[in-house]
Amino acid sequence: MSGEKAPSTLTMALMVIIAVLAVLCAFFTPRSEEFLPFIDGVILTLLTLVTDIVYLIGGGIVIFGALIIIIRFTQTKLKDPDKPSGVTRYLSGYLTLSLELFIGAEIIRTTLTRTFEEFSVLILIIISRGLFSLILYLERRWHGTAETE
After folding, report:
1. Which of 16, 27, 72, 128 gives 20 to 30 Å between its CA and that of 3?
2. Buried b vs exposed e over 74-102: b needs ≥16 C-beta within 10 Å?
3. Domain spans of the chain, in order of start
4. 0.85 cut: is pTM over it?
């Protein structure tokens, strides 16, 4: 253990709290048939709500990024029309961030799927969004700091 760091106090405290809550829930959860569908409905509602919120945040980032890029492009072109504005590099950053949020929402949504068809569609969406994210990342890397438009 010469090169390993010990877990922090916060990490240990969180692990203990999670373990205690798991044990308490296992022993004190009612075993009635009416309780389980209620909890299933609550979890389904909460996960759907979280998924929708993550989608809205991702969409907000796209809209915010587009507005910022339009303003930056307009300001740059008004000062010097021949100077490269570099806006595509910044726009790809906003798009990459929003795509990662969308992928996170799709991963949360996989817990809500009930059929294989829903699951296969979600997997295809995650793969395609992951490829888009990779393409945007590579585009930002290839453009570097000197961008021509």
Report:
1. 16
2. eebeeeeeeeebbbbbbbbbbbbbbbebb
3. 35-143
4. no
